[in-house]
């Protein structure tokens, strides 16, 4: 049970991008600087997308250049195309995260690209990174199901993983983009992926849309996954299920792993303090459970009648 | 993966008892009658407590006598004392559920009895049931931790289980009363309990207070547990964590197990229809995720631009 786990926060990218209001640049920087000292392995800082496409992240360069990078923490950014990659490289990111879908319809709907088109574009982007030393990760959306097409054949997931690794991708994030995954499927796909490509770096990325987020994380852990994406406060959402939960919550995930006796390297109290600042930044409550209920080791005073009776 | 699982709903007892308003007797009966046709293995109908202690369940006899019992479904009731047991027996329940705590402080705070006092009272109650053929279950609260004392020694849990079985209890529910359990602990305690007492009937009872409810259910399943308490809509709460989730949600649990290819015997659509009536009965939204997000096989229409472009 002493295996080291790596927790990667995506709130400032996956979370902030869908908020109704723009989080001021200095607040983003302050939050990331705070997170950098919690023991997180990686922070997805922002996205080098067109400011028109995602106005909330229009300050990508300012944020990436403004943060105080802490040695040992990896700073990654989402990169949608060659232009975004050039912007990211100019900020000396540690990693770029490419995104594609495992299903045609979701790829077209979300990125206006089929998986084939995404792969072709990734090859161009990777060409641009040559010699930079930047780590190349690819997030494979709809790995566990597509909200338009339904089941995605597992053979398709493995075929796309193989092709990603062939073109120079070093890490693959298996993404349950809309919260369709179940623990049996997660354990099967994660186990198979780790077995087929032992040298690749796999991350599991779950949403809690259907309440199974931490159960799926447990299943991935059982399969041997040691890297997990999660979002501070449980920020992020599912555009296809308004009102439903989005990404699994970082502090809830860390809490579960710590209670299980596993080493996440994260200071949970520091993480909770950072999470507690979120409602002030985004103007609404967040889904995280530990923020509401406290950690499992929280103690309550005895009822007054017991105290008075000396019990 | 074809092992049969047994799903037991506690919403009309564990859920309704803490609602702000009284659910009319005829509505309780109608809901239970509806649930009786969903394939649930057991329904915890009500509690034969003093009407003063729990006014919401003051109609215990009327409800128990008013429902149309379906063969194959077990109807259980909570029984706090000999008087409650006599009332329950007069209604010809299938099972009585006794409740005690594994920790002294929670026992005193919640039941005004230490575990020793509870055991003595259980012996009296069981004496009253002799010859009735009623099944005796005991719910062991704070099995996975006490909100006052913290960790409960696992040896204490096994000692109390042993004593419960010695005095004639046939089934033991391992209860995570305030949502403190973690999956590693759950798997350990469930596995050990099943191994020590292969002839006893064990149920796992989890709360989702800290987001780990379904992860803990998965851990219990992995340990060999096949009976699960859950609450329709996720009704029920944690008195020690206002605003936090309570019992795990029946339809979310069934949905997870079904997606995993497991046989719960439950018609999920019928269960969801029953859950959808809850807000009208209790006057507020419920925590269940599937009610909000839909099942994982829910399909969404393609974006309009794709439809128009014939994609």
UniProtKB/TrEMBL annotation, chains A, B:
Keyword match Acyltransferase: no
One of the Pfam families matching this protein, by short name: HMGL-like
InterPro entries for the chain: Aldolase_TIM, HMGL, PYR_CT
GO terms for MF: hydroxymethylglutaryl-CoA lyase activity; metal ion binding
Domain Pyruvate carboxyltransferase: 5-272
Keyword list, A-Z: Lyase, Metal-binding
GO biological process: ketone body biosynthetic process; L-leucine catabolic process
UniProt keyword Oxidoreductase present: no
Record NCBIfam families: PRK05692.1
Family: Belongs to the HMG-CoA lyase family.
Protein name stated in the entry: Hydroxymethylglutaryl-CoA lyase
Organism, scientific name: Pseudomonas sihuiensis
């Amino acid at each position: 049970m002493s295996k080291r786990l790596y927790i990667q926060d995506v709130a400032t990218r996956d979370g902030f991008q869908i908020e109704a209001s723009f989080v001021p640049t200095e607040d983003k920087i302050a939050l990331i600087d705070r997170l950098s000292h919690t023991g997180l392995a990686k922070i997805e800082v922002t996205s080098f997308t067109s400011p028109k496409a995602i106005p909330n992240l229009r300050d990508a360069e300012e944020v990436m250049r403004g943060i105080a990078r802490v040695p040992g923490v990896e700073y990654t950014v989402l990169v949608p195309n060659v232009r975004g990659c050039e912007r990211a490289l100019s900020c000396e990111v540690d990693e770029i995260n490419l995104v594609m879908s495992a299903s045609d319809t979701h790829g077209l709907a979300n990125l206006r690209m089929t998986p084939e088109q995404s792969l072709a574009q990734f090859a161009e982007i990777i060409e641009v990174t040559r010699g930079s030393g930047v780590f190349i990760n690819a997030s494979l959306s709809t790995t566990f199901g597509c909200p338009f097409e339904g089941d995605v054949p597992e053979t398709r997931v493995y075929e796309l993983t193989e092709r990603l690794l062939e073109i120079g991708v070093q890490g693959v994030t298996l993404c349950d983009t809309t919260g369709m995954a179940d623990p049996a499927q997660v354990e099967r796909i994660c186990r198979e992926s780790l077995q087929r490509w032992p040298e690749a770096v796999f991350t599991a990325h779950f949403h809690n849309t259907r309440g199974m987020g931490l159960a799926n994380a447990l299943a991935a852990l059982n399969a041997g996954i040691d890297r997990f994406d999660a979002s501070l406060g449980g920020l992020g959402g599912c555009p296809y299920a308004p009102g439903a939960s989005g990404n699994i919550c970082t502090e809830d995930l860390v809490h579960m792993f710590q209670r299980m006796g596993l080493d996440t390297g994260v200071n949970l109290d520091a993480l909770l303090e950072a999470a507690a600042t979120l409602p002030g930044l985004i103007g609404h409550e967040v889904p995280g459970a530990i923020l509401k209920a406290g950690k499992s080791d929280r103690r309550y005073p005895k009822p007054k009648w017991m105290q008075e009776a000396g019990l």
